[in-house]
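Listing 4. Sequential folding, example run.
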Amino acid sequence: MTDLTLDRVPGASVGDYLELLKPRVMSLVVFTGLAGLVLAPGHLHPLLAGVAVLCIAVGAGASGAINMWYDRDIDAVMARTAKRPIPSGRVGAEEALGFGVVLSAASTLLMGLAVNWTAAALLALTIGFYVFVYTMWLKRRTPQNIVIGGAAGAFPPMIGWAAVTGSVDLPSILLFLLIFLWTPPHFWALALFRNGDYTRAGVPMMPVVAGPEATKRQMLLYTLLLLPVAAAPAFVGIAGPAYLAGSTLLGLMFVGCALRVLRATDDRPAKRMFGFSILYLFLLFALLVGERLISGGGA
């Protein structure tokens, strides 16, 4: 990895360190982790549930900080990331790395001591997978980077589930698969209209390597695969008819987005699909949580 020598502006602000945690990404991670906790059978004391959610948030942010440390060279040449704290010189690279490592260790240790070690092990696996497998190994080597690496973002509901149950069960695996299959069309939509950024940075995203048309076909395939997987929670006892109807409608809308992208001659449908993909995942998990809370369940 090419190293960068950047002049850091003295006195980085609290906001700069918060930005290292990728708060927008963290918010969706935290919500899906909370959903796993609410959907799990059993009971967890509200204080411990709060600790579990905090640990998921801090762990996700920590891995984001380490990712920014490692990717500081390519971040500097991409318009979307050039203003991040490290390439812009607001935070030093070593400070960012130390910040991420300390938060990673602290969140995992706290999860183990306060909640249970199964959840802590899953949290450690999530951080390690994102840092070592996705960021350091896959991202710069293969167009399948986001397919395999997407597993890191799919673990949070499993962590929330394990925080309550101390185990990994079929429903939590289905929640994992839902996010795992959602990730490629979500990120490839972004890569389509940010293709120039990834080309300049030398990151082999699917549109760069296989071309836009092949990418669009794969995006459609993944949205079709999502339809039965997103419906599956209704058949394993963690969701009901309202969720089933909502997930089917949202899934068909997602497929519709992919079809419009497939036929498109400009970037506008890809931009709309990227925006809708975030709403899609949020609404799916909101339906799961809402239905459970209305029915009187929850951790």
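-- end of first protein; second protein begins --
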Amino acid sequence: MLLLTVDSATPRLVLGLVRDAKVLEQRCLEDARRHNEALVPTVMEMLEATGLGFDDLQAVVVGCGPGPFTGLRVGMVSAMAFADALGIPVTGVSSHQAIASQLPGSKVLVVTDARRKEVYYTEVVDGQVHQGPQVCKPADLPAMDVDTLSVPQHLQQAVVEQVNATEVVECYPSAQGLAAVAQFDPPQTPEPLYLRRPDAKEPQVQLSSAIPHHVPTASPEDSHEG
């Protein structure tokens, strides 16, 4: 089965073509501001590089987070649009579980940046989610012992104070990891793991005190000329 894999749960957009667990092509785009405009052209580049076309794709795998609202929806909406247009199945996976599948040890903790001085975390034991995903401040992470801890470098100092790990690495979702945890019997409906409300807030309308709160409406008679 030829899979298109997509993940935008972290600042790194990961796209890949995977056939029978073998990665044919992978692209990692670091500039989060360009993910939306670069996603489709990059998929086309990968297909061209492998001599394949959209008609060759048989399924789509998409990372569902946890991740921030704006970034996560770029990958998820695109993945579901590809699947719908091509008439092929799409399955959603935990981006944290995909990361954990790439790491050694039976007990793995995956931590990613949630912004607002918070982190997302998921504990994976023997390939299965044991606790999480959750969002909290690094100081509020539950104390635990793990074989491997994956955490972005800029958060390592804060996280290792709470977690005892044999090995500490910085790892992101990969095409191979996404494909490894995907299920197609039946496909898992993609459900975004936002874990909190988006940063954007509904604007509050404030009327000037100079504007009357109640504006009288014209009666039908007012609209007639004398």
